[in-house]
């Protein structure tokens, strides 16, 4: 086995050992524009979606509604080029920093959080 | 009923109508430092945690491990002063922008994502 491939397999096992999945085998992935810091959306990954994301550099999620893997932008063209993925302290959330092409939201807005902001006390 | 209180009740019902909770009655809350844009952590809220957060201006979550409400910072002093809360397009995720006192993570790190970053292709 060539060394780069061996390295990859080892890291995958390292990540897999740290991941704490929910009852459906999924972890939430917070998706953030890498340079502006905007939070674009939240999606879900299982081990295979994370593996594909790291292997291809294109953010790939598990669609809970369609029960299938979903390369973000595959139909819309609004891909997410992945810059980095970090696991949180508990291993149950991923932070995926991406460079987003076009709007992140399927509704056409820049992020999925473009609605009205509620403020404490004035709500 | 005085008008400001009536307004509050109406908005609560508006939010409640839009929220899509998981099987446990919870939605994930992405917590972001309002000025730097850093993603600090992910926590969970039910309707009551969101109501308390908006009423008090202090981020309040539902602890799944302890099965109780949890005012972030109540024991550590590392409170989160809430600037705004936004619902995503599907109503199943909250983005909570806060001003974090001290480290956000219970491990003492600045955010809960301060571990090693994985990069596509080099993983």
Question: Which helices and strands, and how do they pair?
Answer:
2 copies of one chain form a homodimer.
Chain A: H1 3-18, E1 27-33, E2 39-45, H2 47-56, E3 60-63, E4 68-71, E5 80-87, E6 94-100, E7 117-118
Parallel strand pairs in A: 1-6
Antiparallel strand pairs in A: 1-2, 3-4, 5-6
Provide tags for this entry.
homodimer; 123 residues; alpha+beta; Ubiquitin-like (UB roll); two-stranded antiparallel sheet; 21% helix; 32% strand; globular; disordered N terminus; hydrolase (chains A, B); magnesium (chains A, B); cytoplasm (chains A, B); amino-acid biosynthesis (chains A, B); zinc (chains A, B)
Task: Please give a structural write-up.
The structure is a homodimer of 123-residue chains. With 123 residues, chain A is of the alpha+beta class. Chain A has a single domain (26-116), classed as Ubiquitin-like (UB roll) (Roll). Chain A has helices at residues 3-18, 47-56; strands at residues 27-33, 39-45, 60-63, 68-71, 80-87, 94-100, 117-118. In chain A, a hairpin with a 4-residue loop joins β3 (60-63) and β4. Chain A is globular. The termini of chain A are far apart. Mean pLDDT of chain A is 90; it is low at 1-7. Chains A and B meet through α1, β1, β2, α2 and β5 of A and α1, β1, β2, α2 and β5 of B.
């Amino acid at each position: 086995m060539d060394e780069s491939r061996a390295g990859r397999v080892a890291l995958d096992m390292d990540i897999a050992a740290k991941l704490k999945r929910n009852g459906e085998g999924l972890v939430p992935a917070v998706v953030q524009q890498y340079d502006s810091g905007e939070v674009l959306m939240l999606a879900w990954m299982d081990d295979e979606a994370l593996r594909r994301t790291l292997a291809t550099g294109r953010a790939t999620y598990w669609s809970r509604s369609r029960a299938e893997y979903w390369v973000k932008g595959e139909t819309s063209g609004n891909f997410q080029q992945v810059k980095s993925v970090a696991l949180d302290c508990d291993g149950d959330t991923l932070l995926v920093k991406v460079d987003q092409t076009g709007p992140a939201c399927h509704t056409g807005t820049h992020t999925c959080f473009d609605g009205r902001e509620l403020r404490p006390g004035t709500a």
